[in-house]
Each structure stands twice: as structure tokens, then as C-alpha cells.
Design a protein that fits this description.
Layout (H helix, E strand, L loop, with lengths): L16 E5 L2 E6 L3 E4 L4 E4 L6 H7 L8 H15 L4 E4 L12 H13 L4 E5 L2 H6 L8 E4 L3 E3 L2 E3 L10 E4 L4 E6 L5 E10 L2 E3 L10 E2 L7 E6 L2 E4 L5
Parallel strand pairs: 4-5, 5-6, 6-7, 9-10, 10-13, 11-14
Antiparallel strand pairs: 1-2, 2-3, 3-4, 8-9, 11-12, 12-13, 12-15, 15-16
């Protein structure tokens, strides 16, 4: 069965941008995710659970609460869409210090809420240091590239001979310029003919401003919506 936008609750796609990747209709979501209706799949990248706890463990005082915020945002996506699968494009956990009893308990409770959803983690560079999620969570862990339909699911941006690559790692952002030299930097999706970069999902992550590129379209995310950035902006 195909899942088109007509099957979704009105709130699920508020602010989203509908486009086509590899011939497949998809939605770039304001929640820093890609929704692929035909595959009933949500793609996210760079969640970095436990990053704040890692900083605190290393003596850097930062506020807590980011893990619960990130899990709540994932829950909102999975509740708002008829998703049968969640694919994380790398960096699910931030570091080995993220494996705290508190985080493990929060993850177990969150996974129980979404027991019917298949979950796949494509290992990223942080995952190689943090280690895989606990086996009891039932999250399949795979190496890149991992193919789903026409998409090659990766963490690091790369080329693929036959599939359109979905990747993270970069934490892409774009700068919008207004009158009076006002500037605003926002996370973005970056869409090229055979590669799409997703913005970082985690709420406690940095971003890298992408330079202009002739064959790449940028879609800024802010204010609860996604919109195409005019060329040259």
C-alpha cells in the first residue's frame, strides 16, 4: 500500500516542502526529517543523543534535557505520520559517555512506545566511538551504504552508482541576507541530482554553512516550515 499525503493528519505536513528524489515523491519536513510516503519511512540524521551528558562528563557545564527533547521530537514525527520504519543516517549516540543509566532508561521507554516501528541505524563516525545501541532496543545496525528503494542510506556524503544518496554528517546550514546587511543562519536540506544532505536532527548540534553550488538546491528550515532558498541568497 502506498502512503500519500492524503492519508496524513493535516498537522503532520504543516510547513513541509514536497519534492521528488530519484523519481519518488518525498516531503522535506520542518522537523528536520525526510518523509518517504511510498516506503512509509522517516529518515533523520545526526541525533547525537547524550551529547550534553558527554560534555558534562568531560567537565564542561551545559544544561540537561536535550535527550528528552530529541526523543519527544522523534515521537512527534512517528505519531504524526503513518510510519512503519525510522532510518537514522548516523550519529544516533554521541559518545561512549552517552551510555548512562538515565539515557538507557529513556531510550527503552521511548522504544516501547514505538514497538511497531522498524528502526535502522546506519553507523556514523560518532557511532563507531559510542558503540551500538543496546541490543534490547531492537534497532538494526548496518554499515553504509544501506539501500532502501531508490535510496542509498549513508552517514558520510558520497556517490553511489545506482541509488540516490541520503546522508548526514555535514549538519548543513545556509545564510539568508536581508536589507541593511541583516543575516540569518538556518539549518537546511541540500539537494543535488544524486545526493541529499539532511540537517542535523539533534537540538544540541552545530552547523556548517554551505557555499553556493550550481547543481545544488537549498531548502531552509525555520519558523516551523521549509522553503526553497532563491539562488544567490
Amino acid at each position: 500500500m502506498l502512503f500519500g499525503s492524503e492519508t496524513l493528519s493535516p498537522a503532520a505536513l504543516i510547513g513541509a516542502h514536497a519534492t521528488t528524489l530519484a523519481g519518488e515523491p518525498v516531503h522535506l519536513l520542518a522537523g528536520h526529517a525526510v518523509w518517504w510516503p511510498a516506503g512509509a519511512t522517516v529518515f533523520v540524521a545526526d541525533v547525537h543523543l547524550g551529547k550534553a551528558a558527554t560534555f558534562r562528563a568531560r567537565g564542561i557545564p551545559v544544561p540537561g534535557g536535550t535527550t528528552q527533547d530529541n526523543l519527544a521530537r522523534l515521537t512527534a514525527l512517528l505519531h504524526g505520520l503513518p510510519a512503519r520504519r525510522l532510518v537514522v543516517l548516523g550519529d544516533f549516540l554521541h559518545a561512549a559517555e552517552a551510555h548512562t543509566p538515565t539515557l538507557r532508561a529513556a531510550l527503552a521507554d521511548w522504544r516501547d512506545q514505538h514497538a511497531a516501528v522498524d528502526m535502522v541505524l546506519v553507523r556514523g563516525n560518532h557511532d563507531s566511538h559510542a558503540g551500538d545501541p543496546p541490543p534490547g532496543l531492537g534497532i538494526a545496525v548496518v554499515d553504509e551504504p544501506w539501500c532502501a528503494g531508490p535510496f542509498a542510506c549513508c552517514h558520510h556524503p558520497q556517490s553511489h552508482a545506482t541509488h540516490h544518496v541520503l546522508a548526514g554528517h555535514v549538519h548543513p546550514a545556509t545564510v539568508l541576507w536581508g536589507p541593511g546587511r541583516d543575516a540569518l543562519r538556518l539549518p537546511c536540506f541540500a539537494v543535488a541530482p544524486r545526493l541529499t544532505l539532511l540537517p542535523a536532527f539533534g537540538s544540541f548540534t552545530g552547523a556548517a554553512t554551505l557555499p553556493p553550488q550550481a547543481d545544488r538546491r537549498l531548502f531552509a528550515v525555520g519558523g516551523g516550515r521549509v522553503w526553497p532558498v532563491p539562488p544567490g541568497r
